[in-house]
Amino acid sequence: MLLLSELDNHQHLLFDDKIQVDQLIKDIIRHEQFAADEKSLIILADLESIDFLGNQRLLHQALSNLLINAIKYTDVGGAIDIALQHSHNNIIFTISNDGSPISPQAEARLFERFYKVSKHDNSNGLGLAITKSIIELHHGTIQFTQSNAYVTTFTITLPNHSH
């Protein structure tokens, strides 16, 4: 809740950290590897070397939230694919995983505060709302897509003028 308040009243937040985004993602993967191993998940990462000016603590939180969710909702023995690349003046980060499908009703509410896909979910329903706020504070966007093969993908696009 404190982080949400901080994001809502962002006057004191600084966005001038020089972030090696690829290294940040590698650190997040290392930190979450044990949870992935417990479910026999494979994490595949295709990461371009990219520097970005932003708030490292917040960006770490946003990307961690997405990997934690991917691990949580990927079926045992499944795979998580992470990609980071330049595209024109943008950074594109994608994280995809296979798992149970998300209903259209749930999909429409994924980024709402306190929304949970399942009432049996033990989370507080804030992770994706926080992630979206962080990305928007960096002047970026986050999108969710789902294929017929039950592959869910979150795509973050951030403007990058530091390369």
UniProtKB/TrEMBL annotation:
What is an example of a GO molecular function annotated in this UniProt entry?
Answer: protein histidine kinase activity
Upper lineage: Bacteria, Bacillati, Bacillota, Bacilli, Bacillales
This protein's record includes keyword Transmembrane: yes
Instruction: Note the superkingdom of the native organism.
Output: Bacteria
Q: Enumerate the subcellular locations listed in this protein's record, separating them with semicolons.
A: Cell membrane
| EC supergroup of this enzyme | transferase
Q: Please name the GO terms of the biological process aspect recorded for this protein, alphabetically.
A: osmosensory signaling via phosphorelay pathway
Tell me the name of the encoding gene.
Answer: hssS_1
Instruction: Check the record and name the SMART domains matching this protein.
Output: HATPase_c
**Membrane topology of the entry:** Multi-pass membrane protein
The record, for PROSITE patterns, names:
HIS_KIN (PS50109)
Query: What is catalysed by this protein?
Result: ATP + protein L-histidine = ADP + protein N-phospho-L-histidine
The primary location reported for this protein is membrane
List each copy of the Histidine kinase domain by range: 1-162
- Give a GO cellular-component term: plasma membrane
Matching entries from Gene3D superfamilies are given as: Histidine kinase-like ATPase, C-terminal domain
Q: List the keywords (alphabetical).
A: ATP-binding, Cell membrane, Kinase, Membrane, Nucleotide-binding, Phosphoprotein, Transferase, Transmembrane, Transmembrane helix, Two-component regulatory system, Virulence
> What function is annotated for this protein?
Member of the two-component regulatory system HssS/HssR involved in intracellular heme homeostasis and tempering of staphylococcal virulence. HssS functions as a heme sensor histidine kinase which is autophosphorylated at a histidine residue and transfers its phosphate group to an aspartate residue of HssR. HssR/HssS activates the expression of HrtAB, an efflux pump, in response to extracellular heme, hemin, hemoglobin or blood.
Q: What is this protein called?
A: Heme sensor protein HssS
